[in-house]
Amino acid sequence: MRSRIKAVEDAFRNEFDGYLVVNPINILYFTELVGAADSLGSAMLLIPGGEESTLHIHGVNYEWAKTEAKNCSVQLVKRGEDLVDLITEKIREMKLMKVGFDKMDFQTQQKVSKGLKRRAQLEAKADYVWDLRSVKDGGEVDRIQRAAQLTTEGMQTAQDTIKAGLREFEVAAEIEYKMRSHGSYGVAFDTSVASGLCSAFPHGGCSEKKLQTGDAVVVDIGAKYKNYCADMTRTFVVGRPSAKQEKIYNIVKEAQENAFQKIMEGAKTKDVDAAARRVIAKAGLGEFFVHGLGHGIGLEVHEQPSLNSTSKAVLKAGNVVTDEPGVYLVGYGGVRIEDTVLVKRSKGQRLTEGLKFLKKS
Ligand SMILES: [Mn+2]
Prior knowledge:
By secondary structure, the chain is α+β, with helices and mostly antiparallel strands. The protein is built from ten helices and 19 strands. Strand 13 (294-296) and strand 14 (303-307) form a beta hairpin. The termini are far apart.
């Protein structure tokens, strides 16, 4: 398999003679390091087209990176050395004339530009990286699939646990314990167990509120496996759902399925969004579906492509996206159903699945 660094070299070749990766998550992507991006500290990966790439990294992470990083050499940034000066020097030494980068704060950019003394041009351009990251290779799909299985197990626990009198955080604790004890590396985002009126807030969070009979409970969770995330939402009702709850639930379920049927290579993301929106609008609830249908997912919970009414993206085989329509009635309650879906040639494949019905107990 072609390394990710080779792939980005091929992509930037006509525009740049070098590329600087600064965003820590992109560094994890190219070096295939498994670890938390925020513990990576400042590090920079210089990819000079055609020559060996070098990860410049501080002492605290040096030995780890030297052992684990793939596709590049690893160079220690010694105590007292300045990473930015070092990179600038390297660019000059290698006589790179036009260098692209993914993300850099303004001060750093100024410093590099000044150090280059107009001998080389520096330009922000990250599309190459987002495009590459949006199409998952086999190893990435395996990891997301594992994260999705763990997430589905967590959701099963939510369904088994939810009952009147429990607090939202107690349900969250059971879910996280299940995912973690079965192999999750952590949570992809804060576990959300939003009950009653809070279920009408798309990012309802999780509080010390007690679940009450009749509450809708929107559970939005994600496990993480070797850096890769999954994302799943189900809506439960404490006790017997009312006719109105059941009706709204079935509309959202139909919307989610309708969009799912459209997911395949070549589909316009705005058409997939429209397929869900149409069902909800037809039921007269269009104004209460207040967000886009979904988002790409991988090393981050939200990445390319976006699935919404203004998105210009077209699905590619290997994208992994969420399908998550919702209806939110403020002052009443909300329903959202979400799965993580792998895009294939002629269909989508749900990586999270099951539990498609309201809890009745
Ligand atoms: Mn989501």
